[in-house]
Write a structure and sequence with these properties.
By secondary structure, the protein is mainly alpha-helical. Helix content is 67%, strand content 4%. Helix 2 crosses helix 3 (42-54), helix 5 packs parallel to helix 9 and helix 9 (188-202) packs antiparallel against helix 10 (206-228).
């Protein structure tokens, strides 16, 4: 158990440093550095290297070590990378990125769910939507409402029967754990939108499900866009400059 905790702590520390720019693009980290700093074995150090390399954050070269790669090489959709970025200075930008992606995907997800959801999933969506509405009537149930919203959105994405949509549910849960969508009314009006989506999915009405879902995400997206304001294009961002070794 201690080894597992050390493994996670080391990975978390290095990943955060890369995201925050503490370890500059092009700088080198060796296995010996990892072993010494975190008091881990060579086996654990190699596993850390493997994970960071799979995330596109480092490139391993013999007799060189681990070279830090630019953001353009990262797997920015991986929940670990998203989590590190949410804890850094780019918190609001990452929320906007995910909100924009979700706003484009969720209406289609609702339509696909209306078409492909199992009977059990349709029934469960109604149950969770009702739970959200009940919680919205109780100021002391804010946490329960947030959990129910996460359950609903996860179930909706999985009910599409599309593995890529289902895979996005992990990121949605991560972001919702971090912060409630900006612009969402924490009351009955907001909650009733879930009931409308669930009802349309349960009825197999894809068009209504898509329209109801689009209305739900539109306000949060507009508010988040206003909050973050102008941002540089990917080509203008210093971390997006290509770098080769």
């Amino acid at each position: 158990m201690a080894t597992v905790q050390l493994h996670h702590a080391a990975l978390d520390a290095i990943g955060q440093e890369i995201v925050d720019g503490t370890r500059a693009v092009g700088s080198v980290l060796t296995l010996a550095d990892l072993e010494q700093r975190f008091t881990v074995s060579r086996t654990v150090a190699r596993e850390l290297m493997r994970i960071l390399e799979s995330l596109g954050m480092v490139r391993s070269r013999r007799r060189v070590g681990l070279t830090i790669r630019p953001r353009s090489s990262w797997n920015v959709l991986d929940p670990m990378v998203v989590g590190w970025r949410l804890r850094g200075t780019e918190h609001d930008r990452v929320l906007l990125d995910v909100t924009e992606l979700r706003a484009s995907l969720q209406p289609m997800a609702a339509e696909l769910a209306a078409r492909n959801a199992t009977g059990e999933q349709r029934h469960r969506l109604i149950e969770v939507a009702d739970a959200i509405v009940r919680a919205s009537r109780r100021p002391d149930q804010a946490e329960a409402m947030a959990e129910a919203e996460m359950d609903f959105n996860t179930l909706l994405l999985r009910a599409t029967a599309n593995e890529l949509f289902a895979g996005f549910s992990g990121m949605v849960r991560l972001v919702q754990h971090t912060e409630r969508p900006v612009g969402a009314e924490p009351g009955l009006v907001w909650a009733e939108r879930y009931r409308r989506i669930a009802g349309a999915v349960a009825a197999g009405d894809g068009e209504t499900a898509r329209i109801a879902s689009r209305a739900q995400v539109a306000q949060g997206l507009a508010a988040m866009t206003a909050r973050v304001g102008p941002r540089p294009s990917l080509a203008e961002h210093p971390s997006a400059d290509d770098w080769s070794v």
